[in-house]
Amino acid sequence: MAVATASASSSKAPSGDDAILLGDAEFRFLRDFVYEHLGISLGEHKRQLVQGRLARRLRALRLPDYAAYCEFLRSDPAGELGELASVISTNVTSFFREPHHYELMEKQLLPQWIKKKRSEGGRLRIWSAGCSTGEEPYAMAMVLAEVLEQCGASGMDAKILATDLSPQALDQARNGVYALDKLGGISEERRRRWMMRGAGEYEGYACVHPRLRELVTVQPLNLLHEWPMRGPFDAIFCRNVVIYFDQPTKQRLFSRYAALLSAGGYLFLGHSESLHGINEDFELVGRTAYRKRG
């Protein structure tokens, strides 16, 4: 799509880059680009939000206006996609958010799966899709490591795949370092066991235990593009991700999840998300917990 360069639709006020205006043509381009590559629908009511958040990217890239940023996207869409996703989406996460999901995994699902896979020689796989800065997969890794020990199966082939599109979020997830005030969802017992408190320049921070790193693999992935993994997965966590997607995008995504889940595998969604009227491959079995039919 052709987009006008700096013109009446993209003017710059004299008070600095915070006052750069997002013009009609540029917003239309960004809206189409974001929907095509990220599956996120941006209504007109999001215009001011997009303008404000993208001002940071203009400064970082030393671009004069939004028309120049649109040209930049056209010249290297893949290279900027992660940064754009980071800017327009809100990465809100925490350790053990929506604890009922972890309780279901700990008390019921993981012991069942481990027992079955030990007898059959299978592997256990969990996917954190949209892992953000890593709190979700590392919380799951704490639970997984503990249940494996309880079942006498610490040597089992069990892994958690954590994926996201945001480069900044992925960097923190790989580092596994978190400010102490971000550990509120972790019990004191688990903090002592699984979080290593920093000293010196790392005072006020904690790092995840090496055992958790063994269980978690962090990789970049765009949920709308091709997926290199084959599965099957026993559980997929996709919480507070599809709130950004429209109905057709959700339908395609959930069908792809179903294809990668094992028979009776589980899909976990966020508290404000639902499969009702969207997908028939799953049945609701708990609070935003769905089991694959068949």
UniProtKB/TrEMBL annotation:
Membrane-crossing segments per the record: none
Keywords of the record: Methyltransferase, S-adenosyl-L-methionine, Transferase
Enzyme Commission code(s) on record: 2.1.1.80
Enzyme class: transferase
Catalytic reactions of this protein: L-glutamyl-[protein] + S-adenosyl-L-methionine = [protein]-L-glutamate 5-O-methyl ester + S-adenosyl-L-homocysteine
Keyword flag Ribonucleoprotein: no
Pfam family, one: CheR_N
CheR-type methyltransferase domain span: 15-294
Gene3D superfamilies with a match to the protein in the record: Chemotaxis receptor methyltransferase CheR, N-terminal domain (1.10.155.10), Vaccinia Virus protein VP39 (3.40.50.150)
Biological role: Methylation of the membrane-bound methyl-accepting chemotaxis proteins (MCP) to form gamma-glutamyl methyl ester residues in MCP.
Cited PANTHER family: CHEMOTAXIS PROTEIN METHYLTRANSFERASE
Name used for this protein in its record: Chemotaxis protein methyltransferase
Organism expressing this protein natively: Rhodanobacter hydrolyticus
